[in-house]
Request: fold
Amino acid sequence: MVTPMTQMESPRIDSARLAEVSRGLDRAEIERREKVFSVSGLGVSYHGKPALEDVTLDVHRNTVTAFIGPSGCGKSTFIRCFNRMNDLIPGAKVEGTVLYHGADLYARDVDPVDVRRRIGMVFQKPNPFPKSIYDNVAFGPRVLGLRGGLDERVEKALHDAALWDEVKDRLKDGALGLSGGQQQRLCIARALAVEPDVILMDEPASALDPISTTRIEDLMHELKREYTIVIVTHNMQQAARVADMTAFFSVVVDDDGSARRGILVEYDTTAKIFTTPSDTRTEDYVTGRFG
Amino acid sequence: MAQLRASFQEELRELEELLDVESDLVLRSVRAAVEALVTRDPELADEVIAFDDDIDEVYLRAQEAVELLLARQTPVASDLRLVLAILHSNVHFERMGDLCTTIAKLTKLSADLPPDEVLLTAFREMGERCEEMIRIALESLHARDATLAESLIHLDELIDLSNRRVVSRLLELGPENLEWGLRAIVASRCLERIGDHAVDIGERAAFLATGEFREFTDASRDPRPLT
Amino acid sequence: MLFAMLVAFGTLAVLLVDTLITGWPELDRQLFSGPPSTVPEEAGARPAILATLYLGLIVLLLSVPIGVLTAIYLEEYADRERWWNRAIEVNIQNLAAVPSIVYGILGLAFIVRGIGVGRVVLAGGLILTLVVLPTVVVASREAIRAVPDSIRQGAFALGATKWQVVWRQVLPASIPGMATGSILALSRAVGETAPLIMVGAIVYVAFDPTLFGSYTALPVQIYNWTKQPDPTFQTLAAAGAIVLLTIVLGMNAVAIFLRNRYRRQW
Reply:
């Protein structure tokens, strides 16, 4: 017995869910979210030689944004602009504007120390301090004067970094005794302990084995619910797997072959970059035809 | 060790579930098309034709989802076979939907022509057989069961038998029912094609399970007679 | 190479054994508790030993803080572009190689007479500090340099100020290296003779030394005894040498032990 077909709704059809399968966030949804960073006309030079030129893009809340591109394209230089780590490099000069929640990050009265508390960073090679696991995670809160409830802070940070179960019985042991993947998760916990707003990751898994890499990527999926994440990666499949938005940088060489500068070629949803990129240079890079 | 790539596994599951949604729509379409044909109901036939849009919507969504999943997750091994199986099955379901539409259109054209009990019974049987085959094909895909998939061959033979019965009945009825007869043959052929598509899905399910793609029957080696 | 090693160790061994044999008879409590005397049987080196220890303490208390802070400034804060920093850079190594008697002359002129402190323990301590300060600075700089930059980057990225990075990460990590360098520098200071003679470690002191009092140091005392004709004094000198050697070798052993125990695997 058949009832009028169009009136009968199958209990399993859920058009909203249907639309979401595999698609991930689309551009409109991302742009509805609050802008965490708004970069315009950014350029970086070292001792007068330009390394990166005229970058303009926005990073939105609770997304993972990936920077990809060949070596020398300035992606690491770029990510260091977000937490003013370029300040520590002698001869580095930053032009253009970086707005963080609408405020100029490079304004005169902005204290880089305060910036770095809100915008944490994880580096390519895990760099745990030569102290105990506990002291590593507690270092941030201690230097920032966040005294209260240190034990709870450390535990929460280790939980959020998916490391608690493995180290909960040996918090006083030296951090250098952990494996590479564990050390990197410890560095993530360390960054989380100061309760940042944004986590920057400069090739966080390139020094790790595949399983540790996958665990870090899974961690990013979890973390983006609470934090905003920006990563640099030379592994574009990684960007395809984890990122919501992907920015492709490339190198331009002056006619006489002397100066090499980085530029932003294309910035769009990961789905778009890896299915129908707008720029041929992007297409050439992601298909591996040009390195 | 906790499961890795949880979000990717979730995406694969959702993609497989899309097939469930699609098959559900197709089953309803088959049921309604046959019902319209047998009861000579042009309004129901219209609904079947309109319903094809819903099936196409799911088809396009699944195509897009497969493309995105391949681009972003680079699945390998059994994950890759699953995605390819879904890709192919999706096309087969969409074709089944189109065939139902054809049957519905034929129904509309032959609504005021006299029916024949034998033929109507045959059509009902073929319709039920098709529904059964679609369910089994999907089940064998979900269960990764190659043996179950192979059992589709026998059901397909039954449809073929019914198809031949329709042809021989029409020859009996003679030339005064020519118009109706021609349309009936096409409708029968459509149902037989739906069965073939179900077998194709079964072949994909077997490929998913074993890693080897094999056609279940090959016309060039089929020992059965043509008529 | 083996032959060269044998020659070196052999010479050292011969020297040590010879000193030991020569000085053994006079190695007694009298040596440690009694003041020097013209009568060899009653002579001891107590004031000299005490003064040596005091001098060592002064050197330790002055050279380590100054040396470490200098090293921190040079490594962490100084802008390499500035010419004066480059000048300091170049000259620290040179200073470590200057013969100690030159320090003695300088000390005589500027500290003993210039400031007018006089021929006192404090002056001796200051001179010795100057002698070993370059070594402490160099050793501390090496220890600071050995701390990988990734540690600093990591600390900065967490929102630490420059001073917090230095005080909480760089210094603790470089303490073993600094301790080793300091102890070695100290052991050198304890054995210095020439500058002390220049600034007035009087050869015959029979009373216990005080900070602003006259003094003599163990190496000087030994030197004094070797000049005496009576053979007992030679034995005493050898005995004193044993004591001095023990102190110096003991310090070196502590330094080596510390270095091996706390050697960091970066």
Q: What stands out?
A: Chains C and B do not touch (no CB pair under 8 Å). The mean pLDDT of chain C is 82.
